[in-house]
Design a protein that fits this description.
This protein is mostly beta strands. Helix content is 12%, strand content 40%.
Length: 538
């Protein structure tokens, strides 16, 4: 049935293109054949390509088709439709890849449906991929509305440029793998950026927010929704529990700073990003957020052999530190159940009484500061509270920030399914889907022209992998470490890609692409290649 839907949608639109003006239409047909020495395909053969290719299996053969048509194009209004699908040799793995309407009304952009376009990514072909809202997973069905590209503000004489959008989507998949799984999870995302214009050097700053909420549990239970509390990351009395004191839903975010520079040598961009998973990470000044992504993109002018280069370093292994998120009452404390959080505002300034009744301390003169220090020393192994952020994972949503088992952010984070292939002897705690999200990485990417109509693309990524807090410990609130933890010692891994493309001079509608990739290191070795034939008649 899925196969028939894909063929019908693609045939309907492509047939209409035949009877339309070809200058308003685009058609793309491609075949891809991949081979791998390992059940794990090399990373850069499948990552950051909108989920077109399988990440597992020693072979993959598919046909891809996409057609789009500009329905209307005027100064203040435009409308475009598109559909694309994948037909796999295993028909059950065929799927509708894109189906959308998008356009512009006045200064506002919009899109409805599944669109293979990230509104904030910085060249995922050369970089390791945007940390949030990347091109790694299949397009998510969603509605986007906003200003997608920088818009100069006339009343500032174009000195200030802004962009931003709000998005509402649904991760339309079933997940029955865990008690905390959920299907049809709702996805709310938004971003806001400001840039200075009218200058050769254009600094910018932006904030990205992504949230999961709602959905249906495996037993059919509907997860309550408090939309506005989720949008503003506020506590919800309607949902109660931990979401009363924290925030409704699951949240990830990203600070994004940098500048663009244009000169006679070319165009450059420097970016510095700070991921976060809670309010402590959001507040840059508190010192708990020590993770970052630092990168540079440069596109030289008049240099045929080098049209683009990327350098990037990523550090996401701190995640607010080893300390557990909140202090807990002792197991044998009579007035509070085991695991109850100690809220400082509930003590009502009677710190002496609290310390005596809870810990048997008879000394006096306790203050909030000394109580917190005591809790850190005696219950948290000397670490500040508020740690173990566990990026891209969430206790209420086992599948975290994934769509069809692929990260919708950075592809460097590895799931439990991936780990089961390179470490079958290891049995994770099964608390979260990303079992390896504490990573440091260095990425180098380059592309350019070699000779005539031959072009190349190279990507080299080296990683240092420390697993995840959820797997190192039995859970985020305990100090007992897991036995036989796979990442007890840091694992080093490299991901390499070399790609060569050729467009025949007499047949410019055809492009042949050969890709070779090699992954090697402490976790696994995998070598593979792909031959692609792309045909774009118009």
């Amino acid at each position: 049935m899925r196969f028939l839907i894909i063929i019908a949608c693609f045939f309907a639109l492509s047939t209409s293109l035949v009877y339309s003006q070809l200058d308003k239409a685009n058609l793309k047909l491609a075949s891809y054949s991949s081979l791998s020495s390992n059940e794990l395909q090399p990373l850069w053969l499948h990552a950051n390509q909108w989920g077109l290719f399988n990440s597992t299996g020693k072979s993959d053969v598919l046909i891809y088709g996409k057609a789009d048509y500009t329905i209307f194009q005027k100064k203040y209004f435009s409308l475009e439709a598109g559909v694309g699908g994948v037909v796999n040799t295993n028909v059950n793995e065929s799927f509708l890849h894109e189906a959308y309407l998008k356009g512009k009304v006045s200064i506002f952009d919009f899109s409805v449906g599944k669109v293979a376009k990230s509104l904030i990514a910085y060249d995922d072909n050369l970089t390791s991929g945007m940390y949030l809202m990347s091109s790694n997973a299949r397009p998510i069905p969603r509605i986007d509305l906003g200003i997608f590209d920088y818009l100069p503000l006339g009343f500032t004489k174009n000195w200030v440029e802004v962009k931003g959008a709000i998005s509402q989507g649904v991760l339309n998949q079933k997940d029955l793998s865990h008690a905390n799984s959920a299907g049809n999870i709702l996805l709310h995302e938004k971003f806001a950026y400001m840039r200075l214009g009218n200058m050769v050097l254009q600094p910018y700053a932006g904030l990205v927010h992504s949230a999961l909420y709602g959905g249906t549990r495996p037993d059919g239970t509907k997860i309550p929704v408090d939309y506005w509390a989720t949008v503003f990351a506020k506590g919800s009395a309607e949902l109660g529990g931990g979401e009363l004191t924290n925030a409704a839903g699951a949240h990830m975010g990203l600070w994004d700073f940098g500048f663009y520079y244009t000169s006679s040598l070319g165009k450059a961009q420097l970016y510095f990003q700070k991921p976060f998973a809670d309010g402590s990470g959001l507040r840059l000044y508190n010192g708990l957020n020590k993770d970052y992504i630092l990168g540079c993109l440069f596109y030289p002018k008049n240099v045929k052999w080098l049209s683009g280069i990327s350098l990037e370093y990523s550090k996401t292994d701190f995640q607010s530190g080893y300390g557990i998120p909140d202090p807990l009452y002792p197991v044998d404390y009579k007035d509070h159940p085991q695991g109850t959080v100690i809220w400082m505002h509930d003590i009502e300034a009677d710190y002496d009484g609290f310390m005596q009744s809870t810990f048997g301390e008879t000394s006096t003169g306790w203050t909030e500061e000394t109580v917190v220090r005591y809790l850190e020393d005696h219950l948290n192994e000397g670490h500040p509270y508020g740690g173990r952020d566990d990026y891209m994972n969430n206790g209420s949503y086992y599948s975290g920030w994934t769509y069809h088992n692929r990260s919708i952010g950075t592809p460097l984070y590895q799931t439990a399914e991936t780990a089961s292939l390179y470490a079958p002897q290891w049995h994770p705690n099964n608390y979260s889907i990303f079992v390896n999200n504490r990573i440091q990485s260095f990425n180098l990417g380059a592309e350019g022209m070699l000779y005539g109509s031959f072009t190349y693309r190279l990507k080299t990524t080296f990683t240092q992998n420390a697993g995840s807090y959820e797997e190192e410990f039995f859970d985020r609130y305990r100090w007992s470490r897991a036995v036989n933890y796979y990442f007890q010692t840091v694992k080093y891994q490299a991901y390499l890609l070399g790609e060569l493309s050729w467009v025949p001079q007499k047949y410019s509608q055809i492009k042949l692409v050969g890709s070779v990739a090699f992954d090697f290191g402490d976790m696994y070795q995998s070598c593979g290649g792909r031959l692609s034939i792309v045909y774009q008649p118009f």
